[in-house]
User: Which sequence fits this backbone?
């Protein structure tokens, strides 16, 4: 588990590990990255490295097992596409990764910084603690003073280096006249150091150097846990984005060039092969085909495409090659314009205050007032500023949010780790807390509840002869409906009829000659039939009326179980889709969802989510398409599957890594448990304070009591969090 | 008690050697692939001679 949670620090492990392959070729070197989801053992590492290093043109290759990646340095003409078959022959699944998309996690400076500060705080606090133990066990006079001076010499530089994140945070809060958790921390540190130094100067008995350092160490540990959890999620999310290497085929004087999408300009001619995704917005110049717009609109019915039709980035070309002329590229494409809608919807969500923040709001002023009162009280009682200051420092140190600082990160780390094993990626820091409050779940249909692969529903209604013709025609095509039809017909034991001269007419269907008559399988309009509300392919068998083959989307694995479990947990389940009424109703009935909305535009979806929110419901939105993006951002918390468009994944708080939807219901349960643990932790921390604060105010707290209270409360809180595993 | 004059500096120096070693490991990317490194050590490929 710890191994998985490591942030990727690799700038380029291969450079460090392999000094050969040389700096002299550096300018003519290409760096490639491959994702290897299947590797798991030592033998895999050596096989992959041996295979890759044996490939001509490769200078060095190094596998990172933790990230399941291979980083390769090679001649500039080596392409990842050449290496993938090499690895597949050796028995490893490999995918190309876009190094540009991974760049952000590679130089993980913040994580390294935090780790160094943590190490320094640990080193210093252990040394000072040893000196303090001898003071507590009875060192006196000159020995005690010497120990205090040595402690001070260690503590000051250590705190100045390690506690910088707290100083920076507190300063930025104070500058806008607000209080956050870091203000009392910094005040406690400064006050403890100043009074301790003063006490040391006057050969006093009590110095809080060890407490200040332990406090810094525990708080930094909380910060680091928090950071690491988020770094893991970020690196996994980036890996998803990096898997979609954005390349396009540009046509120039009749030649094809493969170029990165970022290099495309307006007016470029781009070839999109069947199965490819539109890289930019544009207009079709030549070619006929069908387009799958389901990721953008939620419609499952493919759209006919011919020259003159405008296409948007993200649509999938189904049957024939298309040449498009780019009309908008990069930031101007409709895909990117959707981000405006997302930004508007997101402004609503930032209102959520995390449990830690609301605790800090109660806590920070309380601590300051308490310590100020203790100071004032003792000053009026003794008129000795030294005693009063000492007691004020003791109050601050003892109440300091050591356990509070660990309470949330320890729980979220444990919960995120558990959900990560189930295939859920928690991207947002407060996503778990928000997930725990959910009472309404809104599902998108296409690509979320359904897998996006069609299934024939009425195979039994057709005569065997028709099925044989249909199978023969369908086998010649790679259209998703044809593939589904031939798979179903083969499974039913149908043999293809002897249809001759089968040709695929891109955008329409397939036709051929059977016993002298022309037979066709394809779109309703082409066959001469009326288009129904359901996805259908029509067969003209040469005689009689055209017959429809009806299709529905296959359910995603675990969809039915997830809906069932959510309903059993007492949550409202809704289905909102951009697809036609028939298709949506059919699915809603199949899954037992009573509330559904069809033909919803993207704005309708987010408006409906907004309406539910206004009614006081906490909405969980699950969706994958561009049309869901605004709704994902508007919902209280949102989940998208890994197959979703990049824009949708960015807008959602949680990404589902596998195919299965079932973990969603369990995630709600884990989130509720996690929130309960967080509250318990707050209660434990408060309990320690309730016991220790009166002692501190009464002036009975010694540095020993402070150290004990701090350590025990931090350890109890961490152990309580670990119960979640 | 004069032994403290030696012992305390010695313990501090030893501690900072450990701290410096940790800094070195962090800076030289030794925590990038903990899982892979723990398995690479079992590899017998370069047992006879070091990797060129």
Assistant:
């Amino acid at each position: 588990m710890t191994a998985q949670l490591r942030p990727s620090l690799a700038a380029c492990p291969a450079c460090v590990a392999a000094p050969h392959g040389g700096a002299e070729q550096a300018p003519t070197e290409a760096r490639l990255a491959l994702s290897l989801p299947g590797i798991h053992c030592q033998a895999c590492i050596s096989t992959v490295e041996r295979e890759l290093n044996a490939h001509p043109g490769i200078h060095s290759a190094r596998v990172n097992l933790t990230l399941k990646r291979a980083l390769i340095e090679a001649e500039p003409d080596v392409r990842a596409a050449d290496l993938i078959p090499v690895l597949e022959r050796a028995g490893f699944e490999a995918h190309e990764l876009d190094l540009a998309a991974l760049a952000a996690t590679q130089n993980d400076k913040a994580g390294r910084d935090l780790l160094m500060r943590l190490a320094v705080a640990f080193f210093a606090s252990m040394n000072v603690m040893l000196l303090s133990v001898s003071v507590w066990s009875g060192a006196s006079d000159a020995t005690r003073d010497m120990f205090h001076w040595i402690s001070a010499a260690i503590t000051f530089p250590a705190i100045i280096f390690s506690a910088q994140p707290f100083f920076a945070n507190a300063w930025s809060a104070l500058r806008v006249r607000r209080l956050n958790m870091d203000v009392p921390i910094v005040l406690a540190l400064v006050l403890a150091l100043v009074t301790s130094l003063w006490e040391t100067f006057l050969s006093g008995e009590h110095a809080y150097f060890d407490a200040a350092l332990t406090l810094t160490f525990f708080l930094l540990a909380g910060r680091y846990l928090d950071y690491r959890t988020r770094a893991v999620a970020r690196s996994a999310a980036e890996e998803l984005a990096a898997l979609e290497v954005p390349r396009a085929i540009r046509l120039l004087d009749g030649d094809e060039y493969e170029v990165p999408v970022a290099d495309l300009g307006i007016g470029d001619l781009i070839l999109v092969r069947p199965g490819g995704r539109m890289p930019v917005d544009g207009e079709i110049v030549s070619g006929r085909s069908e387009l799958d717009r389901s990721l953008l609109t939620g419609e499952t019915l493919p759209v006919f495409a011919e020259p003159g039709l405008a296409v948007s980035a993200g649509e999938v070309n189904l049957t024939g090659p298309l040449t498009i002329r780019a009309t908008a590229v990069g930031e101007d494409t409709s895909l990117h314009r959707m981000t405006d809608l997302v930004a508007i919807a997101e402004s609503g969500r930032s209102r959520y205050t995390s449990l830690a923040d609301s605790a800090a709001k109660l806590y920070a002023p309380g601590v300051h007032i308490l310590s100020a009162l203790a100071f004032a009280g003792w000053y009026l009682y003794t008129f000795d500023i030294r005693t009063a200051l000492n007691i004020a420092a003791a109050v601050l140190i003892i109440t300091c949010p050591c356990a509070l600082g660990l309470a949330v990160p320890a729980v979220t780390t444990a919960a995120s780790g558990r959900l990560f094993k189930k295939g859920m990626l928690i991207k947002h820091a407060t996503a778990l807390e928000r997930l725990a409050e959910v009472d309404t779940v809104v599902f998108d249909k296409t690509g979320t509840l359904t897998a996006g692969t069609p299934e024939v529903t009425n195979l039994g209604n057709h005569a065997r002869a028709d099925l044989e013709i249909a199978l023969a025609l369908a086998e010649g095509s790679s259209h998703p409906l044809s593939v589904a039809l031939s798979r179903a017909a083969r499974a039913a034991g149908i043999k293809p009829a002897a249809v001759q001269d089968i040709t695929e007419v891109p955008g329409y269907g397939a036709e051929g000659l059977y016993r002298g008559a022309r037979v066709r399988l394809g779109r309703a309009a082409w066959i001469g039939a009326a288009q129904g509300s359901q996805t259908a392919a029509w067969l003209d068998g040469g005689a009689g009326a055209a017959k429809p083959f009806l299709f529905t989307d296959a359910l995603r694995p675990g969809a039915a179980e997830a809906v069932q479990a959510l309903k059993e947990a007492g949550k409202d389940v809704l289905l909102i889709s951009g697809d036609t009424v028939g298709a949506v109703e059919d699915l809603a009935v199949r899954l037992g969802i009573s509330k559904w909305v069809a033909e919803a535009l993207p704005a309708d979806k987010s408006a409906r989510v907004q309406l539910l929110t206004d009614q006081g419901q906490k909405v969980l939105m699950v969706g994958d398409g561009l049309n869901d993006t605004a709704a994902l951002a508007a919902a209280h918390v949102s989940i998208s599957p890994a197959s979703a468009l990049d824009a949708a994944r960015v807008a959602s708080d949680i990404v589902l890594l596998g195919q299965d939807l079932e973990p969603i219901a369990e995630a709600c349960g884990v989130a509720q448990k996690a929130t309960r643990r967080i509250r318990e932790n707050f209660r434990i921390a408060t309990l320690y304070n309730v016991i220790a604060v009166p002692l501190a105010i009464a002036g009975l707290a010694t540095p020993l009591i402070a150290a004990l209270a701090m350590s025990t409360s931090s350890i109890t809180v961490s152990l309580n969090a670990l119960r979640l595993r | 008690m004069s032994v403290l004059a030696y012992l305390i500096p010695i313990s501090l120096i030893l501690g900072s050697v450990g701290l410096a070693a940790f800094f070195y490991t962090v800076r030289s990317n030794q925590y990038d692939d903990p899982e892979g490194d723990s398995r690479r050590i079992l590899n017998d490929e370069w047992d006879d001679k070091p990797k060129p």
